[in-house]
Amino acid sequence: MNQETPPDAKLTEAAQALEVELRRYEELAVRLGRERLDSEKTLRRAADALRALQESDARLGQHVQALVAAIGVARERQQANAEAVQAQAERVRERSEALTRLLGRWQTLGQDAAEVNRMVQQYATAREGNGADRSAPGIGFDEVDARLGRLADDAQELATSADAERFADLGRQAESLRVQLLSARNKLRLLQSD
Q1: 128-142, pLDDT tens digit by residue?
Q2: Which residue among 5, 24, 74, 106 has its CA within the 20 to 30 Å range from the CA of 140?
Q3: How many whole angstroms from its chain centre is CA 57?
């Protein structure tokens, strides 16, 4: 089975091969420097060492080229990863902005719902205090009913937007609020019809 060497292994192998050849070159250079050059035998050994150094020098060049090529591949991999990270960072930014906008709408909706809830309670209290009187002073049934309807519509729009943006939790919360608002509206209408 022929398996291709992983790119990170190629970089390591190229660096190790270069290191091994560099040590061999240094050993040959030291040995050549120690030759006394005072006999035919030592001159022959020096000539052999020079040939070995030339061959080692050629191999060093090849190993340097292999290392440079492996570094180039590593740089390309890093660049590709950096581009992927940058794209994901942009996606995170966009999603965060979308969620922030939706949460702003959710906060406003919650504040408006709390306010209309107070209005419903005031209306109910006023109705109870007035007995047979069908109108509550200061707070009109039509105003409260209309606000509950608008808020239910706003909650529906937020649920739809959240679902479209794939923020399912927020969509469910907005839908739950819509159901609560419609329930409160029905109770208000029952209170009015009593």
Answers
A1: 765 544 444 556 889
A2: 106
A3: 48
pLDDT of residue 51: 97
Q: Which of 40, 64, 88 is the last residue of a domain?
A: 88
The residue range of the domain holding 13 is 7-88
- Write the burial class of residue 127 (CB in 10 Å: 0-12 exposed, 13-18 middle, 19+ buried): buried
Both 134 and 102 in one domain: the answer is: yes
Q: What is the CATH number of the domain that holds 122?
A: 1.20.58
Q: How far apart are CA 5 and CA 7, in angstroms?
A: 6
Phi/psi zone of residue 137: left (φ > 0), alpha (ψ -120 to 50 degrees), beta?
Answer: beta
**pLDDT tens for residues 21-50?**
999 999 999 999 998 989 999 999 999 999
Contact 126, 136 (CB under 8 A): yes
Say if residue 83 is in the same domain as residue 174: no
